[in-house]
Each structure stands twice: as C-alpha cells, then as structure tokens.
C-alpha cells in the first residue's frame, strides 16, 4: 500500500505542476498586454537596454518550448510567444532573456549547472541500469555506483532552481522598469512566472523522493 501511495505521488506531483502551468498560461495568453508588444519585441527591448548585442531572438517550434541556448547565444521563443501580444507572452519572453542576462554576467549558478550536464546525463541514462544489475546480481557496490550517478542528476535539478528563480526575478525587474507591464499587469505576469517555477520545484521534489527510496533499498540489501 505504501508503495502504491509513493508511486501515485511520483505521478501526481509533476502532473499537477504541468496542469497549473498550462492553465495559467492559457488564461493569461488571452489577456492582451497594454503596450501591445510581441514576445519577440519584448525580448529585443530587454537585450538592447542591457547592452547585450551578441544574442539573437529566434522563433522555434513546439508548445511552450521557449528556452535560451548559451551555445549559439539565442533566445528561442515558441510561435505563440514570439508573435503573441499577451501578458503570458511578455512574461515568458522576459524570463528567457533573464537567462541571457545571466550568461552575459557569468552568473555562478548558471555556470555550475552547465558543468553538471555531462554527469547529470550519465545519471539519467545509466543510473537505473546499474542499480537494476546490482540488485539482480547482488552486487551492492554496483547499486551504490548507480545511486551516485543518480545523485548528480538530482543535484542538477536543485541547481536549476536558483537559476530559474533568478531569471524570473530579472524578468520582472526588467518589464517593470522598462514599462513593458503596467499597473495590474505586474501581478498577472508574476502568476505566469510562478506557475512555471512550480514545474522545476516539482521535478526536484520527485528526484529527491526517488533518490531517498533507492538509498533505503540499497541499505536494506547490505
């Protein structure tokens, strides 16, 4: 029964976070921004006002596929955000530019997260394989090696939190100081950003829960 509850939580937590994001985005994507700027225009304005001229703004495919790519210095906005003139589009575009600002300032947590990517990928791809082989072959050392790999993936999730929260904070500072959002729009933009942040918090919580479960299983097999 305990295991059923545990796996139910693993499923429900991220689904709930995704539901909140989609519901909030859908609501505020229908609310036009008073300035009438597209997401692309908002992104360009913030970049220019902060003296960042080596980053381009591009349109990308997919739903809420918006991201900043430090490799080729691009802010990639989904079509709805790139062309949209909504509060949601303004908030999301500003958030991604927040990452470009972090990159330009050599923000420590962003650099640390990038350095963790190879180890996090190893953890995501091979941790469970090593753990399963270890359990079936009764090789405790292999189990703990898999758990160590998974720990890097969990660490990556946690380092992502300050990176994302800081990007949202920068986004709000910029859209307010530049007059991109006005009056009650500021509160609405914050709701969009807070809903998006929930997905990262949920991912971190689920990752820690699974890591702790595996540690307990490994200890019981010693």
From TrEMBL:
InterPro entries: Zn_peptidase_2. Pfam families: Zn_peptidase_2 (PF04298). The chain crosses the membrane at residues 6-21, 116-136, 142-163, 192-216. Keywords: Membrane, Transmembrane, Transmembrane helix. It comes from the Bacteria. This is Zn-dependent protease.
